[in-house]
Amino acid sequence: MEQNRFAAAFKQNAIWLVFIIEIAIFAYFNPKFLSLPNIINISRQVSYYGIASIGMTFVILIAGIDLSIASIVVLVNVVCAYLMMNLGWNMWLAILVSIIMATLIGVLNGFMVSTIGIPAIIATFASQTIFRGLAYILSGGLPIPDVLRYAPEVGLNGNPTLSFFARWTLNHWSIFPKTGIGLIPVCAIIMVICFAIGSFILNKSYFGRYFYAIGGNEEASELSGIRVSKMKYLIYALSGFFAGLAGIIVLSRTGSAQASSLVGFEFEVITCVVLGGVSVAGGIGHMSGVIAGVLIIGSLKSGMVMMNVSEYTQMVVQGLVLAIAVGFDCFSKKRNAG
Amino acid sequence: MYEIDARFNDYFSELDPARRLEILNAMQDDEDSQYLHRLYSERYRDNKDVWLWRAICLEMLYGQWRLFKSSRNKEVRGILKELHADNDSHHEFIYREYRNVARRYLSTCKSSGYASSLMGLKQASDDEKVIKACLDIWQMSEGIARQENLRDNMQIWIKALYDELINYDPLCKLEYSRLSSK
């Protein structure tokens, strides 16, 4: 029995072994890979993948999918930058409004999937197109440049109130990417807090149980008294919320908003989640695996850049990782079925 | 084993809670029907089928890794208590009620979304659905009992679910044996 327990623990956490092997390989080929600046850089880089992957985990757990998260991230980028730069809004107010908007987009996805009954892949693909388009319309197809540097000059229009907010924004906006507690960047801390919240929801709350149950057998969950429809609204809203938060992190990191950015981001997030052991059939997965998945993809990207692997080759590798992760999941399911 | 009076057959074969209550209310008021009323009110609370939910929880607890194994064992024991598994009397009624829970669960296993894969894109074949149903039932009975060393406490539960499963599809007996021999 103890041996079984060890085997189960090993199986559940094997993904961490993959992560360690990956780190060892990159460190062997480039000793700078394990340097402090690179580790900090990776932690910044993975922060927005990590945050977005929490919502995606919930969605995949109920055997759904959310293809709209990249568009939500981009729209949050553009709207938040627009509110601050063009309208001179207070930074926190702009962030709040942007995240509420992202959550509402999630609710809209929930409505299409749960109430109308559109398959999740189609509903969220439609959202993806709609909100990417809106981001282009709002930004006029042009980047909203350098939020940090131009904040005082753009959107002032001689208005002292706007001027105050713009200056305040300039002084405070950089807190996410530049500062941290000790050496740990704030965006990485936000990611860790989000993962803690995600883990709590999945492991300690009734909602988490409901997510697993819906993914395992939706109809039986409904019969047992779970309001599946409401749960779907909640899950897609959470996915939108976390995507919105990721959008704020991206904006603070890049300092500019561009409607054409982050193409394929949703597939990278799906790769992180599936690689972390969340089954595409729903009902199976845990947050610690997703953390490992995020770190593996983040390290892979960083390692390939350090080894001068071309961008196109990186795309090929990431596509292969996604195919292998999904293939492994399907294979395990078939093997279990005998 | 677990024989009951034929007048209860309709009650135990019915899956709809409202209809079951009607049947129960129409019965002669005696000690047995009072016990069934008690079971009914414990199973269906706050518009929920609590026992079905507990069965689903047992399935989820199977194979779930936890740092402290004792916490999972404690949770399973709590569920068994709620399911009256430790009840010294009325075994025949409890057995029938368990079979009703299993039948209600199995009634959902032919839906189009059941056992689908690839985020709901690929629907399962009929055989795949049966195999998944067997796995689910095995995990919530024999599997979790083995895992937590609670076979003695779960005898009626395991038997009831097994008996219901082998009536569900001819393939189930073989599949259940395969899972048990692992």
Task: Characterize the structure shown.
Chain A has 338 residues and is mainly alpha-helical. Chain A has a domain at 44-261. Chain A contains 15 helices and two strands. A two-stranded antiparallel ribbon of chain A has the order 1-2. In chain A, helix 1 (2-29) runs parallel beside helix 14. Chain A is globular and about 60 Å long. Mean pLDDT of chain A is 84; it is low at 150-166. Chain B has 182 residues and is mainly α. Chain B has nine helices and two strands. Chain B has helices spanning 9-13, 17-26, 31-43, 50-61, 69-82, 91-106, 126-147, 155-168, 171-180; strands at 44-45, 48-49. A two-stranded antiparallel sheet of chain B has the order 1-2. In chain B, strand 1 (44-45) and strand 2 (48-49) form a beta hairpin. In chain B, helix 4 packs antiparallel against helix 5 and helix 4 (50-61) crosses helix 7. The longest helix of chain B is centred in the last third of the chain and has 22 residues, at 126-147.
Task: Please summarize what this structure is.
With 338 residues, chain A is an all-alpha fold. Chain A contains 15 helices and two strands. The model of chain A is unreliable at 150-166 (pLDDT under 50).
Throw out a few tags for this protein:
heterodimer, A: 338 residues, mainly alpha, two-stranded antiparallel ribbon, 15 helices, 2 strands, B: 182 residues, 9 helices, globular
What percentage of the residues of chain B does DSSP assign to strands (E)? under 5%
Which structural class should the secondary elements of chain A be placed in?
mainly alpha
Distance between the termini of chain A: 23 Å
Task: State the share of residues found in helices of chain A, binned by percent.
Answer: over 70%
